[in-house]
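Shipment paperwork, digital attachment
Item: protein structure file
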Amino acid sequence: MKLPGQDAIARQADEHLVTHKVKLPRKLVEHPFRQVAKRLSVALVVLVVTAFVVYVDRDGYTDNSDQSVDLLDSFYYATVTLSTTGYGDITPVSDSARLTNIFVITPLRVLFLIILVGTTLEALTERTREEWRLNRWRSALRDHTVVVGFGTKGRSAIQTVCATGLRKDQVVVVDPSGKAIEAATAHGYAGVIGDATRSDVLNRAELYRAKQIIIATQRDDTAVLVTLTARQLNRGAKIVVAVREEENAPLLKQSGADAVITSASAAGRLLGLSVLSPAAGMVMEDLISQGSGLDLIERPVIKAEVGRNPREVDDLVVSVLRGHRVLGYDDPAVGGLELTDRLITIVRATPATHVTPDTRPLPRD
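Attachment content:
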């Protein structure tokens, strides 16, 4: 196993200064400065309209200083009236001016206050609403999928599982990069910013209630630490890990991983297959791309198929899952299909094609 020095691992595990934060996906909204600018613009329009109304009916108002109301006095009156200051030095004296105050200026005053007070209340209650939303999300989250790492591998894994029917609100992404979490929430996934080797960060992702965990970190040693922590927090979840070096796969399985995918070797094999047969490489690429062309899916055996040979099934059967064993379609041990078996088949992708997940752990070597 290619690990850095033990001191480096200890420092990483004992780091207490890592900031972590849960971020939920939200609808696209305007920039806060743009929202405030719009509201201030509306408030200014209300002020100008009020001043214009007063100036048009200026003969119905009296000023204690010079008994007349000009344009400046109209803006002054509009300002102190809309702000509910009301010094009383300029007052409506005619019936028309008083009616205008009742039916025009008073509604404008209410509108002005709604704009300003509404902006203040929104700023003050934003944190409260976010906390309420976060608590509601935590209480409703069950049997979800936690994805550690939102790089190329993590994004591709999420796209694949979502293409088979998993809802976006059932995915939680954990990544130490704030930009990666911003990208995840922009796609509709909840995100937790922090170091996934720390149990408190994984607890914020409600990992102890997760059904499956995908670990797609950039480093193999980090994947080992995350796997050990995740397995300690959740004994029953299915854990699938991606590693770069094939020699690290056994250690990941000893750490609690149900399946280990060697990304470098898998890419190399696909490259070699494409060199030997470009058409075969295209077919393999199609099979691992869910939702288009041909899909490789897992499904249970139906009653009508019990007792049949895998070759007699309507779908193209590749393997049979019996207990903890994965048997080839032509394995003599398969015999007739049993109701408890599950089939790995190749089907034509349709909008209704979904993988029926197996809740049992994957077989380990």
